[in-house]
Design goal:
Length: 167
């Protein structure tokens, strides 16, 4: 954890302005995200844990069908409604090579997904979050076992590669 004095002044000012209750917190987060936008770069993000896929056209039912189709190619962990018109799928990607996740994202985009969510620094809807209009972003599907299963497969694969004389 950074010591407060080590943080830039504008960050200390933002932290000092955090409200204590409900809607005020959401408004503060929205305003802060716009202030920090120039600092949202690939250099300031870590490795990817989830690939978020969102479709801009079609109905929520069509989005669900596309997410289920994509789930045959990557582990679908969560589906959240944007509280607008789209359903966002969260696919576990931490156990995959960047090349594999990019190939998956290209395929999703070829089906109509928004290509901006392929960028690691792009903001995405938060599960069970609240939009600026007060509408809740409801989770429609959640399967945390998909993360556990994927990690177990990756560990087994790494172990067999190591015993076969790999890395």
């Amino acid at each position: 954890m950074h010591e407060p004095a080590a943080l830039p002044q504008f960050v200390r000012d933002l932290l000092a302005s955090v409200p204590r209750h409900g809607k005020d917190v959401h408004k503060w987060l929205f305003r802060t995200a716009r202030v920090l936008h120039p600092y949202r770069t690939l250099a300031s993000t870590g490795s990817r844990r989830f690939l978020v896929v969102e479709f801009d056209t079609g109905t929520a039912h069509e989005h669900a069908a596309l997410l289920l189709h994509l789930a045959r190619h990557a582990p679908l962990v969560l589906a959240v409604h944007s509280a607008g018109k789209s359903l966002h799928g969260w696919f576990y990607g931490a156990a995959q090579a960047e090349k594999t996740t990019l190939r998956f994202m290209r395929y999703a985009v070829s089906l109509g997904a928004d290509d901006q969510l392929g960028v690691r620094s792009q903001f995405a809807r938060m599960p069970d979050g609240t939009r600026d209009n007060g509408k809740r972003q409801v989770v429609h599907y959640f399967n945390p076992e998909r993360v556990t299963e994927t990690c177990a497969k990756a560990a087994k694969s790494a172990k067999s590669a190591k015993s076969a004389g790999g890395y």
